[in-house]
């Protein structure tokens, strides 16, 4: 299985996936890493690992992911032979051109136990809501804001005296555990031969 990684920041989840690929626990290779952020440390992580990288041209939009840019991204992933796309801290909403190119093959990691706390800064939302437990979710991307079918979740307790930063750090540790496992689950599903074969 060939993975394409889309990320916007430091790439710590990409590193967790890369580590799983390197130790053989994830039956895949990373074919391409793409970002819209030329300063994202995810690019450096990819270069150090010898993985091809590409920049996504979002036409100067700060948060939107224009349709043309999505079509170009899909084309680059297809050209790299990507089977499954993993969003790893990618801060733009994926829509039709990418979803149509990779139906039921785009995964995302979200720092909350969906459907609770979709959207930005979910750890802060959890603290403000006063919940005793939160966590992270790997789900299929379906065009909504963190609404796709859940693949795997990891629970994290909210501790007395937690700050947004301390809670986010513990959620990130859980993300690094469950994202590789979710990719293994997807790989097993995709490896199942069709009936009659």
Characterize the structure shown.
The structure is a single chain. This protein is of the alpha/beta class. The chain has a single domain, classed as 3-Layer(aba) Sandwich (Rossmann fold), CATH 3.40.50. Helix content is 38%, strand content 20%. It has 6 helices and 7 strands, in the order βαβαβαβαβαββα. The chain has helices spanning 12-22, 41-48, 67-79, 96-101, 122-129, 164-191; strands at 2-6, 29-35, 53-55, 84-87, 106-110, 133-140, 150-157. The protein has a 7-stranded mixed beta sheet with strand order 3-2-1-4-5-6-7, with helices on both faces. Helix 4 (96-101) links the parallel strand 4 (84-87) and strand 5. It starts with a strand and ends in a 6-residue tail after the last helix. 38% of the residues are buried. The active site is at 110 (proton donor). N(1)-(5-phospho-beta-D-ribosyl)glycinamide binds at residues 11-13. Residues 1-183 form the Formyl transferase N-terminal domain.
Which short descriptors sum up this protein?
single chain; 197 residues; alpha/beta; Rossmann fold; seven-stranded mixed β-sheet; 7 strands; 20% strand; transferase; Formyl_transf_N_sf; Phosphoribosylglycinamide formyltransferase; phosphoribosylglycinamide formyltransferase activity; GART
